[in-house]
Each structure stands twice: as structure tokens, then as C-alpha cells.
Amino acid sequence: MSPEAAPAMLVLVRALVLAQSSGASEIGIDHLLAALDPETSSAEPVAPPEGPFFPVPRQDMALAPDAAAAMAPLGDISTIPLNILRSVLLSAKHQGAH
User: Fold this and answer.
1) Hey, where are the domains in the chain?
2) What is the dihedral of CA 82, 7, 24, 58, to 10 degrees?
3) Are 84 and 24 in contact (CB under 8 A)?
4) Residue 27: helix, strand or coil by DSSP?
5) What pLDDT digit, counting tens, does each position of 48-73 carry?
6) How many CB atoms lie within 10 A of CB 94?
7) How far is Cα 71 from Cα 66, in angstroms, rounded to an integer?
């Protein structure tokens, strides 16, 4: 992913990694919120790997239904400001807790 990638896209990538490392079957609201937290990401940027490169299986994982429903009204992920994303996710999390 390029350094110019939209911040919300980077959050999705971090959430994917968090979900995979926790053994989850889908990316949930908690994964997305944790990915928004700067403390959960590495303080130093990761250097790009040097070749040779080997093919790897796709790393797709679906959003949990509540996460997808919360994010759907926001439209294109590449245009979502992080503060709006955080607000929507927190609201959805609190609604789901009731």
C-alpha cells in the first residue's frame, strides 16, 4: 500500500491484521476501533521488503455485519475522515451494547 493511501484504508488493513492475529472470522467493530488507536500500531514505519517475492494466498476477510452496517452510510472508504469513522464506530458499539 502506498504512503498516499487513504487513512481509513490503512485502518482497514490494520484491522485485518488484528482480526487475523486474534483468530477472528471477520473484522469487527472492536478491531476497527483498535486499529484507529495509535497505540496499537507500530511507532516506527515498516521498511518495505526486498525481493525475491513469493506469492501468498489472498488475505480477504469480511466485515462483521454490525461493522458493515455502521460504515455503509459513510460511502467511499477512501474519503472518510478518521474522526468521523471513530464516531460512527463508537456509536454502533454503544448501540450494540444495549
Assistant:
1) 7-43+62-97
2) 160
3) no
4) strand
5) 556 676 676 777 899 999 999 999 99
6) 9
7) 9
